[in-house]
Design a protein that fits this description.
The protein has about 120 residues and is of the alpha+beta class. It has a single domain, classed as Dimeric alpha+beta barrel (Alpha-Beta Plaits), CATH 3.30.70. It has two helices and six strands, in the order βαββββαβ. It has a four-stranded antiparallel sheet, covered by helices on one side. β3 and β4 form a beta hairpin. It is flat, with a radius of gyration of 17 Å.
Length: about 120
């Protein structure tokens, strides 16, 4: 089964960019990603640029509207994701518990809805 890990964090809650602590945490992220790949469960994963780069698109009454920024104002921001293919929810939760920012952020684990493409 495929699961999406949506990685959230509050800006400023992790180590500051350019510090030894930041570099150490980045190494944890690289190691975690490599562990997923080594186990053959990694499908995809990437960090996202900051919310200041987001654009939200909506279509209402036949008009396409764009808004700078994310859809909703929240304390925690979506910072990245992993897409994994594991045997079940328990395995997904075990991997999610190892995401490096789990101690100060949150990881939303959601099964991917599978649809058959029409021919």
């Amino acid at each position: 089964m495929r699961y999406m890990f949506l990685i959230y964090g509050t800006p400023g809650s992790g180590p500051a960019y350019g510090t030894p602590e930041f570099d150490a945490e980045m190494q944890q992220w690289f190691s975690y990603t490599q562990a997923l790949a080594d186990e053959g469960v990694l499908v995809a994963g990437d960090p996202l640029q900051g919310i200041e780069t987001a654009t939200t698109v909506r279509a209402r009454d036949g008009k396409v509207l764009t808004t700078d920024g994310p859809f909703a104002e929240t304390k925690e921001h979506l910072g990245g994701y992993y897409l994994v293919d594991v045997k079940d929810l328990d395995a997904a939760l075990a991997w999610a518990a190892k995401v490096p920012n789990v101690g100060y952020g949150s990881i939303e684990v959601r099964p991917v809805q599978e649809f058959a493409m029409p021919s």
